[in-house]
Specification:
CATH class: Alpha Beta
Helix content: 40-55%
Radius of gyration: 15 Å
Oligomer: single chain
Number of domains: 1
Shape: globular
């Protein structure tokens, strides 16, 4: 595994939500080595990328991309491209976070970790793969939150 971590670039399109981007980027930097340690094999993108672009988008935008690239016109939580681009729906995160007992920022962090794990070779098509991936991302999120808790204000 190369010693140098990829540079993370975090952006947001205009959104109704107001995520804490600085906090989210720092949490992503903490989670990144944990995700790399979970690489499925030496050829996964996460071990070789120099840059990773993470963009928070609306449900409308993620549905457009989902239709264009995956032939599914519905909104989804995360889309990961192996060239190092991760799109995250802030609308979906805002809708689902209360169901998971989390804040918007924690849900976004979970989605970000999910995208990084996809770059580390994890898949979630089969139920057993999805369960294993959910456990891995929950563990990484918990570890990362212990090091960089969400501010209370």
């Amino acid at each position: 595994m190369p010693a140098r971590l990829p540079r993370l670039h975090l952006h947001q399109q205009p959104l109704r939500q107001r995520p804490r981007l600085r906090w989210l980027k720092k949490l992503a930097l903490i989670a990144l080595p944990h995700c790399r340690a979970q690489a499925k094999h030496d050829g996964v993108p996460l071990l070789h990328l120099q840059d990773i672009e993470i963009t928070l988008v609306s449900d409308d935008e993620i549905a457009r991309v989902h239709a264009e690239f995956l032939d599914d016109p519905t909104a989804t939580d995360v889309i990961t491209f192996h060239h190092g681009e991760i799109l995250i729906s802030a609308d979906t995160a805002a809708a689902v976070a209360p169901e998971h007992g989390q804040s918007l920022d924690e849900e976004l962090a979970l989605y970000l970790i999910h995208g990084l794990l996809h770059l580390a070779g994890w898949e979630d098509e089969a139920p057993e793969e999805a369960a294993a991936m959910a456990q891995a991302q929950a563990n990484i999120l918990r570890t990362s939150l212990n090091q960089h808790p969400l501010p209370t204000t």
